[in-house]
Structures are given as C-alpha cells and as structure tokens.
Amino acid sequence: MQDLSAIVKAYDIRGVVGEQLDAELVRDFGAAFALLIKPDSPSVVIGHDMRDSSPSLASAFAEGVTSQGLDVVLIGLASTDELYFASGSLGMPGAMFTASHNPAKYNGIKLCRAGAAPVGQDSGLAEIKDTVEQGVPEFAGQRGTVVERDVLADYAAHLRTLVDLSGIRQLKVVVDAGNGMGGHTVPAVFDLDPSRGGGGLSRSLPVEIVPMYFELDGTFPNHEANPLDPANLVDLQAKVREVGADVGLAFDGDADRCFVVDENGDAVPPSAVTALVAVRELAKEPGGTVIHNLITSKAVPEIVSENGGQPVRTRVGHSFIKAKMAETGAIFGGEHSAHYYFRDFWRADTGMLAALHVLAALGEQDGTLSALTSAYSRYAASGEINSTVADQADRVRAVRQAFGGRESASVDELDGLTVDLGEQGWFNLRASNTEPLLRLNVEAVDEAAVKALTDEVLAIVRG
C-alpha cells in the first residue's frame, strides 16, 4: 500500500512529475474521483494549464474516470477559474491540471464537485487518497465516453455580464501573464484581435492591453508565475511606468489570482482590492455578507461595516471560504493572497472578475488608481514572513505565553495564533501545512509599529 500523504495536500494534489506524480498514478486518481462523485454525477469536466506534462496527465485522469463508467468533457487549455466556470455552467464535477505558481517540474490536480464546490481534505480528498492507496476496484460495466468542448468564449462572455466596462473612460492596462494561463484568457475576456499577439485595443471595450509574457510556456522563462513574491512584479512595475499605464495586472500560473499595480508602479495590497470590490458588491446588494480571512487587513471589516455590510471572518484557504460563503449566503469573499470569491461565480475564486471590478471602479471616475485605493489602505503591514523552525508547536506556544498575558491582548486560535494588541497592532502566526515553516503576518498603524512588533515576535520564533 503506497503512502500519498506527501502529495495529497489540504486543498489539492501536487507533486514533482516523474518522481511523485505519473500517468499511472493519475489514472488511479481519476478512477477514485469517479467513484466519489458517481452517485451524484454521470460526467466530469477536465481542463489543464500550459505545463508540458499537463495534456498527458489530463488524458490519463480521463482514462481513469471513463474506466468507472463516467463520461468526460475535455475543455483543453484553461485557467482554473475557466474550469470552475465549466463546472458551474455545465453542472459537472471538475478536475484542473495545474501546479499554479510552482516551478516547472511540478504538476497537480484541483478537484471540485458540480457547481465548482470544493473538494478538500474534509470534503472528499482524504477519501480519494484512501481509495488510491488501497487499490481502486475495477468496474465491470461499460466504459464512459470522451468529448471535447471549447468554453473559452462562453467563460469570457459570462464575466463581461457581471461587470460592465462599456461606459468607462479609456484605460491603458499592462498585463503580465507570467507565461501562464492569463495569456490564454485575457485576450478572450477583453475581446482582443488574436493577430495582435495578445495586446492592442479591445474591439468592444474602452481598454488598451499592453501584454507581457503572454506566450504559454510552462518553463516560466521570464520569472516565476507567483505575483505574491515582490520580485516577480518588478517587470510589470517598470512597464507600467514606462508606457504611462493607468494600471497593471499580474496573474499567477493558472490565472486564478490577480495582483494589481497602480499608475506609479506601486503594488495595491490585496486587502485594498478586497475592500474596493466589497463596496461595489454591497452597492448592488445592500446589507450583504462579505467574507474575509483572518490575515486580511482590519480595514476590510471596517469598510464592509461602514458600507452597511456584514463582515464575517474565517480561516485561510479556499475550502473554508467557500463553505462559509455557502453557509452565510455571502456575496463576496477575499483573501490576503489575492484570491477573490464571488457568489455570482458559483462562490469560486476568479482573479479575472476582481480585475474587471478594479478597472470598472477606476474607469468610472477621473482620478488615479493610487488616489482611488488610498481610501482602502488604512494600515501598514509586514507581508508574510516565513521562518524555518524545528518544532512549530513549541514556538507558537512560546509566542502565546509571551503575549497572551498582556493587559491589552486579545488572543484567538481560529487559524494558528492571532494576537490583537489594540493600538500596538496585531499579528497572526500560522504553521505551514506542508513545510517546517511558521508564517507571520503583522499589521499596525505605521511602518515603525509594524517593525517593532515584527522584531519582537521573530525574536521568539527564531530564538
């Protein structure tokens, strides 16, 4: 019996191709997924990113699904949110082959039930892992069928129905696709002439796209497709300043996350984008609920409340966000990592839809993006700081002991350790699910206060 705990993560399956993940194993994952969802669905939709290994792994997964008598719809090259669109609009469970922002040697599988409902450790992934480890039972009935279907145009059209850009002022937008799937979806969403290499003036919207790294290349020759790392925004920031753009957008490898850069080349914090989009969604549905994870800025629940909404705090991770959205009927949710979730998009995350909201908000007024977003950025933040430690639990206990007894301290353990020190700021310390790391996020009124609190916590964490 094989042990798959190294590659079956909290939210997906991910590993090094050829070492941890191959066609035979993926075929078994496909069969196990089919067994999981067979009582509820006769078909599965499958998409894949631009990595060299993705088409063959997607094909192997399809073989596994059809071996259990279920049918398969292959949508080919797709962003993760395009796969979610297919799952939602077709009413089918889905599988997306991508390792997101991980290096080229990795690949993985993101799974969902019909309507883009997440499959994580607590919602089927552990069951799939057990089935594969113990050996997938053979199915004696008729194999399923495989058909191909292109949903890109439908995906783009659906997004354009959710945010109307037709009446905004003309905007120049630099887009860094990082050689990932944004190079596939951006031209379709913005209705660009395919002969222009992914850029140029939109044929139907008042938008000009300046493309960067739109060539689909799973070796990521220009930079990692991980905009969460500031080093991977440098090229975009320089290009925005060079061409005098109104805004810059950076997508990760599977294009489900979007990072925003203002006209000065400065990164707009994802929490500010969350607050901006929340205000727009609340304008459509006053009093609605907005989900934010516990690492987003305190400005997010403040702004949601000020605009008549109901902020709800949750753990980090898409399965928790989506579950809480379903439970509360929330209209929108945002994470510090630039994942944005929309009730109108089957509660799934789509960076593209968040980007359209930012462009609409910018284009509906005459000011700059930096001026617009300044109202949503109220505090200074450290960003995520990782520390390698031998004993995560021991270091978290030490930090709790050091801060928990302070008169001003409010402590909770919804996800890791969160300590709110009032005017001195707050921090969250979480253990990585997959590495011997502790992740620290600090927020306070200004940079000096952030540094002071960060230094104090790290002195304990790193001993």
From TrEMBL:
<feature type="domain" description="Alpha-D-phosphohexomutase alpha/beta/alpha">
    <location>
        <begin position="8"/>
        <end position="134"/>
    </location>
</feature>
<dbReference type="InterPro" id="IPR005844">
    <property type="entry name" value="A-D-PHexomutase_a/b/a-I"/>
</dbReference>
<dbReference type="InterPro" id="IPR016055">
    <property type="entry name" value="A-D-PHexomutase_a/b/a-I/II/III"/>
</dbReference>
<dbReference type="Pfam" id="PF02880">
    <property type="entry name" value="PGM_PMM_III"/>
</dbReference>
<dbReference type="InterPro" id="IPR005846">
    <property type="entry name" value="A-D-PHexomutase_a/b/a-III"/>
</dbReference>
<dbReference type="Pfam" id="PF00408">
    <property type="entry name" value="PGM_PMM_IV"/>
</dbReference>
<dbReference type="InterPro" id="IPR005843">
    <property type="entry name" value="A-D-PHexomutase_C"/>
</dbReference>
<protein>
    <submittedName>
        <fullName>Phosphomannomutase</fullName>
    </submittedName>
</protein>
<dbReference type="InterPro" id="IPR005841">
    <property type="entry name" value="Alpha-D-phosphohexomutase_SF"/>
</dbReference>
<keyword id="KW-0479">Metal-binding</keyword>
<feature type="domain" description="Alpha-D-phosphohexomutase alpha/beta/alpha">
    <location>
        <begin position="274"/>
        <end position="379"/>
    </location>
</feature>
<keyword id="KW-0413">Isomerase</keyword>
<dbReference type="GO" id="GO:0005975">
    <property type="term" value="P:carbohydrate metabolic process"/>
</dbReference>
<feature type="domain" description="Alpha-D-phosphohexomutase C-terminal">
    <location>
        <begin position="384"/>
        <end position="458"/>
    </location>
</feature>
<feature type="domain" description="Alpha-D-phosphohexomutase alpha/beta/alpha">
    <location>
        <begin position="154"/>
        <end position="265"/>
    </location>
</feature>
<dbReference type="Pfam" id="PF02878">
    <property type="entry name" value="PGM_PMM_I"/>
</dbReference>
<keyword id="KW-0597">Phosphoprotein</keyword>
<dbReference type="GO" id="GO:0016868">
    <property type="term" value="F:intramolecular phosphotransferase activity"/>
</dbReference>
<comment type="similarity">
    <text>Belongs to the phosphohexose mutase family.</text>
</comment>
<dbReference type="GO" id="GO:0046872">
    <property type="term" value="F:metal ion binding"/>
</dbReference>
<dbReference type="Pfam" id="PF02879">
    <property type="entry name" value="PGM_PMM_II"/>
</dbReference>
<dbReference type="InterPro" id="IPR036900">
    <property type="entry name" value="A-D-PHexomutase_C_sf"/>
</dbReference>
<keyword id="KW-0460">Magnesium</keyword>
<dbReference type="InterPro" id="IPR005845">
    <property type="entry name" value="A-D-PHexomutase_a/b/a-II"/>
</dbReference>
